[in-house]
Design a protein that fits this description.
about 100 residues, 6 strands, 3-stranded antiparallel beta sheet, mainly beta
Amino acid sequence: MPEVNAKDNEYLIEVIRDSLEGFSGRIADEEAGASTFLENQVMVIDGVEVNVARFAMLTGGDTLPDTPTFVAIGGVPEGKVAQWTGVIRLRGANMSAAMFR
């Protein structure tokens, strides 16, 4: 995996999904293990463009974050606040998306 500047409490995972719902579910599953989503970058690994999501591990006193909701740019889920905006690779194409909590 490409070198990415990360702090000691941060880690990266590769996320390959065909839908925004699938991507959201994978991020939520990872967060359920006591971490929080920080960002996603589209990177080339072994000649293939993939999502590389960065997470921070939660410490003993931290609470799990609200479940993330990813939407295409322009969509705003009611009662949610934007936490991240960027690019996600789905079905071989890049799309602009935002994550709300």
